[in-house]
């Protein structure tokens, strides 16, 4: 079947020795068609060397606080019921970004005392093998969360694979029933997708008022754009989505009090796209070559930080903004699943 158990981690907090390349996770992007459209609207840079005026929303600091509380609860669970949460990750292929994301998730699990298990398949694996692994984890009582690292190779049916995932273990929040409940008023999903959940947490913990505000979400993917817009609506914002067929995206974005970017296009949003005092959450991550950096590259976002930070009232950096929150929310969802399984409060 080609099933490979790549990593099994059950050690205590703080014992990880894994190499982690960066702190960001799961940058989301639109299709190539969308990206080419966005590129058409990218104005010339007007950045200068003036100091930043915006409050920098430190996602790493906020995520560290959340992860510390999670580790405390995991220790308490282990002392009370003799068990810890378990997360299984299914990885297909050897994409550099996916490998980095999975390493970071495994490291975070180990730091929190959460058991993690990674099953890796070759790029050309059979769909039945992936589904078999999913079924095995579905029935394993020590596994409370299952994550299929996206994107999958084109020959695999992503929808079919995700539909095989047990709803109670869908800690990524991508199961159609979780997404459907998120979209419906009066319904509560078992899990909220990690990156959108992290974006909202950043706003709330930074004291940003959402209710009654105008929000623009740039990008409409199922991973970030769509669920983020649904969450903002749940918090009573008036939400507009900017996508590949949106006319005058700069003008629409300029009317927003809150801007969340998930386009996957580097430096798409310039300072002149923003309303003075807007709050900017930059989900995009894009590696650019930089020989001065240890890994030979650095990460930038969808937002031209140098320009936007002179206009916005608050902004997330890349890296160190949304990425660390994505992992923290994954740990939170996994802990919540284990609490339900063990009836632990």
Automatic annotation (TrEMBL):
Signal peptide: none
GO MF, one example: methylenetetrahydrofolate dehydrogenase (NADP+) activity
Catalysis performed (reactions): (6R)-5,10-methylene-5,6,7,8-tetrahydrofolate + NADP(+) = (6R)-5,10-methenyltetrahydrofolate + NADPH
One Pfam match: THF_DHG_CYH
Feature: compositional bias, Acidic residues: 21-33
InterPro entries named among the record's database cross-references: Aminoacid_DH-like_N_sf, NAD(P)-bd_dom_sf, THF_DH/CycHdrlase, THF_DH/CycHdrlase_cat_dom, THF_DH/CycHdrlase_CS, THF_DH/CycHdrlase_NAD-bd_dom
GO CC entries: cytosol
Example GO biological process: photorespiration
UniProt family annotation: Belongs to the tetrahydrofolate dehydrogenase/cyclohydrolase family.
Biological function: Catalyzes the oxidation of 5,10-methylenetetrahydrofolate to 5,10-methenyltetrahydrofolate and then the hydrolysis of 5,10-methenyltetrahydrofolate to 10-formyltetrahydrofolate.
HAMAP family: THF_DHG_CYH (MF_01576)
Name of the protein described by the UniProt record: Methenyltetrahydrofolate cyclohydrolase
